[in-house]
Amino acid sequence: MTRLTPQDRLILALDVPTIEAARALVRQTETAISFFKIGHELLFGGGLELAQELKRQGSQVFLDMKLLDISNTVEKGTANVARLGVDLLTVHGHDRKTLDAAVKGRGSSPLKLLSVTVMTHLTAADLTEQGIAESPADLVVRRALMAQDAGFDGVIASGEEAARIRAATGSGFEIVTPGIRPAGEAKGDQARVMTPSAAIAAGATRLVVGRPITAAADPLAAAKAILAEIESVSGDGRG
User: What span, in angstroms and rounded, lies between the C-alpha atoms of 214 and 16?
Assistant: First the structure.
């Protein structure tokens, strides 16, 4: 894996309802952050256009689309995303057919594919309700190995599972971790959370951070504090 700087490791989640609000956050934080996530909320409000705008400005872009459909649809959808020139794309990692379709759709493009293992708001009780007897950690590792075998570049997973994923997959496999909360921050609607430094120390490659920055009185200061925490653990920049 390419050596990563703290700026490479921090992805700001632009989970806001409008392009105007997203652009405002980018302007407020652009001296510290150069990697931005666009998810469903913004995708349906002009987010694809913003993604291309950010790429033209030299930023890195993560499209959090969580694709899940029949194989043909996932393959064609992934191919279209690859043509946009963005950097990361999420696909639900429930089954091998979906993963294989995404890899086929990506082709030879540099788009990195991330498998969504178990959503960070889910608990063991939620999995039981779905008829899944495995613990969240066991299911995450199994799905991570399936994604790696399919040719994915990494996974989306809670920091709580990062160490086990790293042990199972080895170095060079991306572990992108949402549910990041600095010490003392409220969990909100997340069930499995971790501080930035703890997640990096456990093996996470990149951190996706939303509300701790976007809801802060000073988003730039909040971003710089998280970058400093990342730097304290990964000052050598290794992936």
Answer: 9
pLDDT tens readout for residues 97-135: 999 999 999 999 999 999 998 877 777 888 788 888 788
Active site positions, annotated? 66
**DSSP string covering the chain, please?**
-----HHHHEEEE---SSHHHHHHHHHHHTTT--EEEE-HHHIIIIIHHHHHHHHHTT-EEEEEEEE-S-HHHHHHHHHHHHHHT-SEEEEE-S-HHHHHHHHHHHTTS--EEEEE-S-TT--HHHHHHTT--S-HHHHHHHHHHHHHHHT-SEEE--HHHHHHHHHHH-TT-EEEE--B--TT---TT-SS-B-HHHHHHHT-SEEEE-HHHHTSSSHHHHHHHHHHHHHHHHTT---
The answer to whether the predicted template modeling score (pTM) of the entire model surpasses 0.70 is yes
pLDDT tens, position by position, 17-33: 999 999 999 999 999 99
